[in-house]
Amino acid sequence: MNGTIQHLEKQQYRIVEETGAVKLCHWMRQRLIYGRSCYKEEFYGIHTHRCLQMTPAVNICNFRCLFCWRFHGMTGFEGTKYPEPEELLERCLQEQRSLVSGFKGDERCDPKLWEESRHPNQVAISLSGEPTLYPHLGEFIALCKRKGMTTFLVTNGSVPKALANLSSLPSQLYVTVAAPNEELFKRVCVPQFDGAWENLMETLELLPSLSTRTVIRHTLVRDWNLGWEDEYARLDEIASPTFIEPKGYVFVGDSRTRMTIENMPSHSSVVEFSRRIADRLSLEILAEREDSRVTLIGKKGSKLKIVE
Questions:
Q1: pTM of the model
Q2: What domains appear along the chain, each with residue ranges and CATH number?
Q3: In the structure, what pLDDT confidence band is assigned to residue 302 with cuts at 50, 70 and 90?
Q4: Using an 8 Å Cβ cutoff, are 229 and 276 in contact?
Q5: Burial of 298 (0-12, 13-18, 19+ CB in 10 A)
Q6: Distance CA 31, CA 46 (A)
Q7: The pLDDT of residue 231
Q8: Helices of type H across the chain
């Protein structure tokens, strides 16, 4: 465990208790210094510089996805001591303020944006690990809501019971579907337990019953899982999400030990994949960002922005 923490700290993670963590997103610097926003601001209306990228399970994951830029040095986590929601959120906010403090002295940084960055109003529960393994997730989301913050939860869909039993749902729920069938799923996502594909299918079947915005994310890796539009579309049809977000793999972080730069698909190939998915489901491409190799698929006239 200590070796994992040391590795994460070298990568500029700030660790909270045993399992919580905060790390500034690449786009935080882009927004504060260069004025460029994350695609989620353009798509969904959140504020890039006021987004808290965190996780309640930094060293805990039940998949070993080949494309994941996160550290894969997790070990067994039975008996882990998890922080309480209040402690987790407060400590994460403290660490965020510490991490952005250095930007104040940069003459390129807008002072107004810097001051706002010290007071997040959006929480991305997505940094690393599988957040649905955190036993207080519903209470944590409820706490964020009471503080006036929107929440994005990103999950691999491996724990459908945790999603079904959430006492409070996030503002937007992402489920990663990175393979069109079970065979490719096992090769690309490398689940660490039996029945993971069945659990993902149960999660997709659950999504239409959840009273929140839902997004299926297809992380697309050239020469691995790009294509198979008919099979992906059948899975999307089961989930009936608010949006579908095909996004190209990026050759960064620890994924560079497993992939090559040739595995990054072009934006044009992501757009073509998206067009084929949209046609099969009678949907439309609502938005795209070339620098992030991402598109947004949904029903014509869909309201994209999150209501704060």
A1: 0.94
A2: 2-298 (3.20.20.70)
A3: very high
A4: yes
A5: buried
A6: 13
A7: 98
A8: 2-10, 26-29, 39-44, 85-100, 111-117, 137-146, 160-164, 182-189, 196-206, 229-239, 267-281
